[in-house]
Specification:
Organism: Defluviitalea saccharophila
Order of helices and strands: EEHEEEHHEHHEHEHEHHEHEH
Distance between the termini: 55 Å
Number of helices: 11
Oligomer: single chain
Low-confidence stretches: 1-7
Mean pLDDT: 93
Bound molecules: ligand C2E, magnesium ion
Helix content: 40-55%
GO molecular function, one term: cyclic-guanylate-specific phosphodiesterase activity
Structural class: alpha/beta
Radius of gyration: 20 Å
Strand order of the largest sheet: 3-4-6-7-8-9-10-11
Largest sheet: 8 strands, mixed, barrel
Keywords: Hydrolase, Nucleotidyltransferase, Transferase
Protein name: Bifunctional diguanylate cyclase/phosphodiesterase
EC number: 2.7.7.65, 3.1.4.52
């Protein structure tokens, strides 16, 4: 059977498809409609100053509240959205949702908080990426200063010159750029040289066994020093326990994110925390 998908996309559904393939098939079919019907929810995960527990920024992490499957995580639909190019309208939907939330936070008096938004490779290849970001910020009359663009290393490999140029334009506008999942890509040091990013997020892979694995701890220590030399703000991702945090403190790693501080939370819950003084409880 051939089933009609959104736009001009067709896909095949066969009776012997396994459960996972079937779910993918349904998600692919439903994606375009889901964007129109606002079935997505932005969760926010705080990023804190390790010394003070102050929330410096929050990372927008998208979830799909699917009418049939319930909460669906990005690992299950971002690649589908990329394959169908629907990641472009989905990315625009996410940026608009973030702008709406930031507008409210400004009114509540939290204008200093920054919001990090993940961009996938397909979005970075978009010819009018910078104009489309600017147009959405203008719709809401927002100064781009609050926005951080997060991109994982491997998505920077294609069309390097175009992406380097776009980052420069974005930075001139006031948008900050973060390299996500640092250390997991193919040429991590190359990115540092060419993509003049503001923030480096060292991947959870190096944090998870930080307190027990000498290699991980030596790598993190070196990346802390490298970041200091390059004047980059280093963030440790995926901090889950006190032992990891103690190691990071000893190494003078300045910023952290992870379940120990907070899981990604709904906007109402975040606003409650912000109203209580923008600090997370000491850990
Ligand atoms: P990421 O940008 O590296 O985001 C971090 C992921 O790690 C998030 O998963 C977060 O919930 C999870 N995480 C945070 N702290 C911890 C921790 O202490 N332990 C563990 N085990 N995990 C932790 P999530 O939300 O499922 O997102 C997965 C990936 O999907 C993201 O990785 C990002 O690459 C992508 N993604 C999420 N939201 C968006 C979006 O709006 N647009 C695009 N293009 N990609 C997105
Ligand atoms: Mg990220
Ligand atoms: Mg990451
Ligand atoms: Mg990741």
């Amino acid at each position: 059977t051939v089933k009609r998908l959104g736009g001009n996309h067709y896909t095949f559904y066969s009776e012997d498809m396994n459960a996972e393939g079937y779910k993918r098939f349904i998600l692919r079919n439903d994606l375009e409609k889901a964007i129109k019907e606002d079935q997505f929810i932005v969760y926010y995960q705080p990023l804190v100053d390790i010394d003070t527990n102050k929330i410096i920024s929050v990372e927008a992490l998208i979830r799909w509240n699917h009418p049939r499957f319930g909460m669906v995580f990005p690992s299950e639909f971002i690649s589908i959205a990329e394959d169908s190019k629907l990641i472009i309208p989905l990315g625009e939907w996410i940026l608009r949702a973030v702008c709406k939330d930031y507008t409210r936070w400004m009114q509540l008096g939290f204008s200093e908080i920054k919001i990090a938004v993940n961009f996938s490779g397909i979005q970075l290849q978009q010819m009018d990426l910078v104009d489309s970001i600017k147009a959405i910020l203008d719709e809401y009359g927002l100064n781009p200063n609050f926005l951080i663009l997060e991109a994982t290393e491997n998505v920077l490999l294609q069309n390097t010159e175009k992406v380097v140029k776009d980052f420069e334009l974005l930075k001139a506008m006031g948008v900050k750029v973060a390299i996500d999942d640092f250390g997991m890509g193919y040429s991590s040091l190359y990115y540092l040289k060419y993509f003049k990013s503001d923030i480096l997020k060292i991947d959870r892979e190096f944090i998870k066994d930080l307190s027990t694995n000498l290699i991980s701890s030596q790598i993190v220590k070196s990346v802390v020093n490298l970041s200091n030399d390059l004047k980059l703000n280093l963030v440790a991702e995926g901090i889950e326990n006190k032992e990891q945090l103690n190691c990071l403190r000893e190494m003078n790693c300045k910023f952290g994110q992870g379940y120990l501080y907070s899981r990604p939370i709904m906007v109402k819950e975040l606003e409650t925390i912000l109203k209580m003084g923008m600090c997370l409880p000491a850990v």
